[in-house]
Amino acid sequence: MSFLFQPFTQKEVTLPNRVVCSPMCMYSAGDDGKVTDWHIVHYGTRAAGKVGLLMVEATAVEPRGRISTNDLGLWSDEQMDGLKQIVSFAHSQGSKTAIQLAHAGRKAIVDEPIIAPSAIPFSEGDKTPLEMGKEEIAQVIEAFAQAARRASEIGFDIIEIHAAHGYLLNQFLSPLSNKRTDEYGGDLNGRARLLKEVIQAVKAEWGTSRPLYVRISAVDYHPDGIQLADSVALARMMKEWGVDLVDVSSGGITPQPPDRIFPGYQVSYAETIKREAGIATGAVGLITTPEQAEEIIANGRADLVFLARVLLRDPYWTIHAAKKLGVEYIGPKQYKYGF
After folding, report:
1. What residues does 217 pair with on adjacent strands?
2. What range(s) does the NADH:flavin oxidoreductase/NADH oxidase N-terminal domain occupy (predicted)?
3. Which pLDDT band holds residue 5 (cuts at 50, 70, 90)?
4. 8-338: CATH architecture
5. 115 forms bridges with which residues in the sheet?
6. Element (H or E) spanning 321, and its range?
7. 124 vs 234, which has greater pLDDT?
8. pLDDT tens digit string along 233-255?
9. How many C-beta neighbours within 10 Å does residue 259 have?
10. Which of 39, 79, 193, 209 is the residue whose CA sits 20 to 30 A from 145?
């Protein structure tokens, strides 16, 4: 039996396999943040391709938190219907569903004033954000909570909180972007306070019967930024706060890319956090072949593999992988003769 195709159970949710369609922004929503036909077909195709978990892209919890004006949103009840269609079809295909709740902070490209822990732009020439006061912090926490309520009513199986890639929660976590001197700054405990309060607010709406994931950037690729030891410490905190899995990515707090990018270049971060923090992890980053994904799961380096660009190239990657790894056909009955 392939390890990649063993079920994975947390709380009341069982994924049929360990393949996750990683959240990937499509920048295809209207200004109203609603699902379009593109999203219906895009996500439906990956669900028909039998990913174990279909995760909807970074979805803004408030208008000023959009990465772009074409981001999906969940700040209004009016945005729920299209997401319900995605969830309903995915469930009909046997895939579980998740949504990544996000706030872009200083990386938002919108007309509204943008916000951040400190008034430091992302890069030279970018808009300078407003430093958040306690009122703005409370508004963001409540926005995450209300988005979680809507996600629950829609019927998602899992929520992921986006605290990576230089977006708002990552901006609070990183000493490169957080220069605050109040209780939301300073050491790691202070810089993680907003994330903790968001997790608590989300859990209050989401409940405890379904899993909660958090995506982090394990390292900032900067000597003065987040290091792997910091992320291990943060993962231990998140385990205490009730997080079920850490989705381990890296970078994004500055424009500086990693020095080296190679197949599986982030897997060791997920492996270290899983081992040292004792929490389930997801590995992401240039995982492209069935054999590579199988090795990660079989050797216990991570619990799930999050696939991104390879699923843009081949939405039926999971079906092809099953065949290559000797698993009986798992695809839709309508497509069986094609495989």
Report:
1. 249
2. 4-325
3. very high
4. Alpha-Beta Barrel (3.20)
5. 130
6. helix 317-324
7. 234
8. 999 999 999 999 999 999 999 99
9. 6
10. 39
